[in-house]
Protein 1
Amino acid sequence: MDDQKLGDDVYALQMNPETSACKTPLQVAYFVLDNAKYWYLNFIYNFMYKCFDMDKLHFVEGDTDSAYWAVSGDEGAGIKQQFKHVIKNQQFYDENAKYFFPTVEGDLLDEKKILGLAIEREGPEIIALAPKNYYMKVNDKEKLKLKGVNQSTNKITKNQIVDNITNGTITKCTNMRVGQKNYQMSKLSTEKNGITGIHTKMVLLSDQSCCPYVFGLNATDYTVQ
């Protein structure tokens, strides 16, 4: 249910439809869930590590089927250079890039090929606290992703994210929504920590490095050099 405030006690409501159409086969959904992590790492270790200079790449954040990388390439080549200036093994790249990247410009089928990759966004700056929690500048626009926070009622800025990293400042947010129970319409308010250094999906070290959960290990078992 979506709502929009029209006055002090007047709201416009949009109800979710009772039916919906899905054109994605169930096989695709199950395949993504079952195989995403394997192919994710397969691309990194069996392709990127073999043909890219990984000293010029930094993994910023990622999710089930996406990864954001900071690339230290040619400063004068602009933000559309992708990985062109960090290739260390051109022959390996030329022989294998076609299995991952689109090879035919403007061909949607080629761009969406199974196990293939497509560029989602490119920009000169990105700061991430956790998966689905980041700031990114795309051309002249700023994109701020903050899962679980209604940004239409909470003003979140890049400075708040930076302040959390440098000073540990926690930004609290309030989500407002309208709910109905027993034919009684109510305005509900939920307060939560919108920006925080707590990261529940990985082990977070003192220098902001993220390490995977391994049974029997905690943050004190990792060494930062």
Note: The radius of gyration is 22 Å.
Protein 2
Amino acid sequence: MNIIYLHHSTGGLIWQGGQLSLFTRAVRKLSPDLANLISRESKIPGLMTRYNKENNKNYRIKEMVFPKASPYGWHNYPYDYYKIWVKNAGPEPYMEEPTLEMLTKQYQVVIFKHCFPVSNIQPDKEVADIDSDYKSLANYKLQYNSLRDKLYEFPETKFIIFTGAAQVKSSISEDEARRAKEFFNWVINEWDRPDDNIYLWDLYALETEGGLYLKDEYAASPGNSHPNNEFSSKAAGLIFNRIIDVIENNGEKTKLTGEAI
């Protein structure tokens, strides 16, 4: 069983279970493999190693920065998954990024997410446009619906999607935060369907606990919407629980947050 975990910064912090040292982060930019050798083992792969040993399993999980800063750009919002995986689908990479046709040949579980600027949702324009990178509820919904149809083309692959990361109160307007909450609620209550190959992990609920913003006690600082080390470590355990449950029980024994039912 091969599992790929696609991420940028917030997802990377959760993968690691907290922030790496400045030195390790500098080395990581040059060589991720060397950084892994000189640093402590990241939390999620460490949990997987222990689970495999204790349960006689052979689940293999790896991370991938997606999409890369160059040539595509550091953008992983609904438009970008739609653009790479739907609009430019096929057996060849798009701007050096793997398509679903490529990923699903190698991995049986694909995990992906959005960075916290996904929550900077603007008012709808008069006409929704699936091919626009303008962040609005109407555009997001068109892009998500198209993406869901695309994921259904790979019924033997399980997909785990994070609900979007929240932001601290100082970094987002109340209107944007309310639209973000509306969108993530729509994803859970309307977009997601039972008994298919798509599963959610509700990072947004963990970060906000029912509010509009990333709680201060979970943030790196009052002005930094990345999760702090304590939250990242806790979240790593919960997403790990969700991954195992999706693989073994189709997600029926955990809540969307990864907590046991």
Note: The first strand starts at residue 2 and ends at 7.
Protein 3
Amino acid sequence: MPKPNMLHISSISQLHELAGFDKPSHPLISIINVADWEITEEMLELKMTSDLYSIGLKDKSCGLQYGRNHYDFDEGVMFFTSPNQVQSVEQTQKRNEVQGWMLFFHPDLIRNTDLGRNIDNYRFFDYEVHEALHLSEAEQATITNCVKLIEQEVGERIDNHSQTVIASSLTLLLDLSQRYYARQFNTRSAQNNDLLSQFQQLLNQYYQQGLLSESGVPSIDYFAERINLSANYLSDVLKKETGQHAKDHINNFIIDKAKTLLLSEHNSISEIAYSLGFNYPHYFSRLFKNKTGMTPQAYRQVN
């Protein structure tokens, strides 16, 4: 009977079983030495999803490809995935061939904790693989020391304090990653400006081609797909460079066009709303007032 080419991993125990590891010390979190992981030809055919969050760090000897972009640091590559993302491996790996670690944890580990309530703030869990975090040697050492503290706690007997201590340590790990991503954005300012130009050009083209009236207000995904980035990464780059997320840029662009159209008496406010991608004119009026402090009708009257 042929094996399925899509595999879903629902628990830490199942992950260990599939990888041929011993039973995990903790049912909801595990840290795996990448050197112990063997990837066979058979595994290359599999696509996987899971109920787990994962955080990984591999050194530059791992041979992973991250597109054609230039990266500032190549000592270590750190990546993050959230539950239900489709993943696959692209090359075989023998034991001890690659150095690094992988940390997996189930959402139940952080449920009813501050981290559980704030996990969506760590937007890099939804970045694409070529948007990985590249670490300097010092940053890699700091991150690895943090993981060792988590590993030490995981190895202890579970008690009433275990969840709090582990969740706090995970929060520190993610906060450090947030800081290092901010550094990465800063050191790639020229590349980020290119992304900003591409985004603005695509937005102008969308308007000039009449796609607002045909297809409605574009989503962030529309632009991210064409720039070959994840929506979160694109929005975070724009936020870093301009102080505004992608959605704000789109809305401000629409309002700017609306102001020009409102100066003409030829079209009603409803017609202008439809031409700018709004199915319901009152949504347009609400956005316009939110951005300008006055209704479209009032703006037209004073101008």
Note: The domain at 6-187 is CATH 2.60.120 (Jelly Rolls).
Protein 4
Amino acid sequence: MKIMIIGATGMAGSAITKLALERGHDVIAIGRSEEKLANLPVNAHLETRAKDAFSLTLPELQTVDVVVDAMATGPDKAYLHVDLATKLVSQLRERQQPRLVFILGAGSLTTGDDAHLFVHDIESDPANAAFVAIPQNQLAELNFLRTVTNVDWVGISPAANFTPGPATAIQYGHDTLLTDANGDSTTNSGTMAVAVLDEVEQPQHHQERFTVANQ
């Protein structure tokens, strides 16, 4: 299978890239920095392209089976999550290939007895003001995707804490924030990579979001 990974040098993207290569897939890694792309594993099945994801054309997208959007942004550019999702979807309307996989945020998950959005907990703490725009815009991204019925997309949200680390046993959920037996809500980058590749190889979700966490 041929997979394009946008944001391939970031925490999630690099873990997904590494695992995709280990599983024998052909990977096109998209990133803005040639220097960071050069740090990805040397592999005959890896092609790197230093370019802005917004410059990707329909012919480029159609050369692959799956596009994974793992782009990360700073809070001041958090709106780019929505903009990139909109651009990718607009180019692929009424097309079945490639499939789009979006790494979303935890803010759009529900939590508590009243099933409120986790983003509201983030917003309520003044200490989070510097980065709250990211989960807010990732929620907007999911809300947009939920209106899309003529593109094959899937979204995957991590738990409250999305951190570098190896894969663990995985908990799966739909729209509720997951925690382990100790009440910890964490998804390692390796755990996310396994969930993404498993979904890519054996699709279980279409035009919906699911969530994964360390077990």
Note: The two ends are 29 Å apart (CA to CA).
